[in-house]
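Hi R.,

Here's the chain you asked about this morning:
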Amino acid sequence: ILYSIHFLKRQQQQAHKAKPVFLFPPMRLWCSGIGRNWPWASGGSSILAEYGTLHLEFMHLSKLSGNTEFAQKVMNIRKVLEHLEKPQGLYPNYLNPNSGQWGQPWIMSDKTDEEAKKMYYDALQSSGGLTYIAEWKGGLLEHKMGHLTCFAGGMMALGADGAPGDKTGHQMEQAAEIARTCHESYTRTTLKLGPEAFRFDGGVEAIATRQNEKYFILRPEVIETYMYMWRFTHDPKYRDWGWEAVQALEQHCRVEAGYSGIRDVYAASPNHDDVQQSFYQAETLKYLYLLFSDDDHLSSDHWVFNTEAHPLPVIRKDNTDKPHKDSSSA
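And here is the predicted structure, written out as tokens:
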């Protein structure tokens, strides 16, 4: 479908409609006058993942259509990002409206995009070998890690292959520690499902201490990291951990019409929120499927996933137009 003439034309039409957003300084996602943000992205901010995904999709569209204008638009965003002041060397979660995580665009370029590579490793250098990723807010370090951040283990594993100098081993060690920490956030709950956020202060580790952080909404990030760690290390514990999650999902989240989130993962029995998030099928189940599939099924050598787990082909060094035909294309 992706390569059909009909859908390619539709993709270009949508991209052309989005062009005016790039005319506003320094860059804008919404120009209709009716754009809205979730409460946690206040002040008209955009989140990190928006620009990373925008980069992947517009670069791929330029490749398919032969129109370099789409790639040029997102490359302008990169220029702004590169020159932004980065507190403590970190890319902020929310900017107005800037940011992006540039590990995946480097992979999409078949690891030839040196600028994206430099931006990625400059940001990763700041993590300092921590086994959890805290939040830097208003100049203060909050010792809290969100479930959303658990994707970072997989990100580090992906980036380790091209790490400069002798840092490959260190990057993989960091990835493994993040995976272990996120697994602990699951095992330390009653229902063996991870909370929305967990803390490392007041004598606790990897435990949610606030009621508004104890919920589970079928998020994919922990499974995503297990999948990448399995594929890069073949350590059976990652499949074991994935299977633990499958069993907990079946036991506590399965309801008559599908799967439901849970309001408190520390409760003795599940209190369902009666919502099956769209990302449960699009991401969580997809990463579980890939965790237990052969490595050549959507291989990371030939495919890169955007923030919603949509696979896009790596743009090969030899400029061939067709992605690698692995078992996933059968």
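One quick note: The chain has ten helices and ten strands.

Cheers,
M.
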